[in-house]
Write a structure and sequence with these properties.
311 residues, alpha+beta, nine-stranded mixed β-sheet, three-stranded parallel β-sheet, 34% helix
Length: 311
């Protein structure tokens, strides 16, 4: 409640007419208010789908987090965002809208056949992180690995432009302050036959923890690395050519803004034949989650190869 009230006060700085609504009565007011065409559901993963369904049935367009994307698809398919003439049900995944990954995807098409893909994620989930004490993430199947890693998988799929076919993974639980597992090392094969690795540590103590995606091709290498330039957080996108040259560009974070702009644009065109942006579809979200779930399943089976569920 405290954070919600803080958000209202922050919003009032730009939109003085903003009004906070609280509890069941406030939710009913929002549902009945014809001036509210769309709602962002920012709640614990376990209750997002239930809340989204209630809003959708009331005719509201909805955007929500992607942890429960598969459940959403199976529980209310007729109202998925793929259909026209019904409320939009979108899944939020800002990595698909980050300019760095959009540019990275273009560059990957220039480096020839892919030979190897590497994703390394060194997280910093400790007591100083505001998400550390989030009880729903600790009770959520897959815990922080799923909640954090699903975004990194979205970045992987965005860059390579094809699906992950199968995985083999080993998982461990090292930090007793975190729910298991908190480390995962996985090899995988893309549908185009290219092999790759995905390594994630939920919490590292290194002050220079790294997060990067690297695609090695016959004609060069593309790397997207999280970083900070002149106090701005974002991604450094680099292309290494076979002649030894390297070109790099830095892109500040803007994925959340871009995905919300896209959602609002889709709402404004909902009554027309406008084709909604597929990056917001639940199918994409479910495919991200499916890769992590396959890795977690493989970890429980001591590295057995697991085929990724198709959607």
């Amino acid at each position: 409640m405290e954070s919600a009230r803080g958000a209202v006060e922050e919003a009032k700085k730009s939109f003085p007419e903003v009004e906070g609504k609280w509890g069941d009565a406030g939710l009913d007011d929002i549902i009945k208010d014809p001036s509210v065409p769309g709602v962002a559901v920012v709640l614990a993963g376990q209750i997002q789908v239930e809340m989204a369904l209630r809003l959708l049935k009331a005719g509201k367009h909805v955007i929500q987090d992607n942890d429960e994307a598969e459940k959403a698809l199976s529980s209310y398919g007729p109202l998925s965002s793929a259909n026209h003439g019904v409320p939009i049900w979108a899944v939020a995944e800002n990595y698909r809208f980050e300019p760095a990954f959009v540019e990275g995807r273009k560059l990957v098409t220039e480096i020839g056949d892919m030979m190897n893909v590497q994703v390394v994620v060194e997280g910093s989930m400790n007591s100083s992180n505001p998400y550390f004490s989030s009880s729903w993430r600790r009770d959520f199947t897959g815990g922080f690995i799923l909640d954090m890693g699903v975004h990194n998988i979205a970045g992987l799929r965005m860059l390579v432009g094809c699906e992950v076919a199968s995985v083999s993974a080993l998982t461990t639980h090292i930090d007793p302050t975190l729910p298991p597992p908190d480390n995962i090392s996985s090899s995988y094969q893309l549908e185009n036959g290219c092999p790759g690795i995905f390594v994630m540590c939920v919490s590292t103590r290194s002050p220079k923890a790294c997060i990067f995606w690297r695609v090695v091709g016959l004609k060069g290498t593309v790397q997207v690395e999280r970083g900070n330039v002149d106090g701005r957080h974002g991604y450094l996108v680099s292309k290494f050519s076979t002649d030894g040259k390297c070109t790099s560009s830095f892109y500040p974070f803007s994925g959340v803004t871009e995905e919300l702009k896209t959602f609002l644009h889709d709402i404004s065109q909902a009554s027309s034949d406008h084709v909604r942006d597929p990056r917001l579809s639940f199918v994409e979200g479910a495919r991200d989650v499916a890769v992590l779930e396959a890795m977690l399943e493989s970890g429980k089976k001591n590295g057995a190869v697991v085929t990724v569920k198709r959607f």
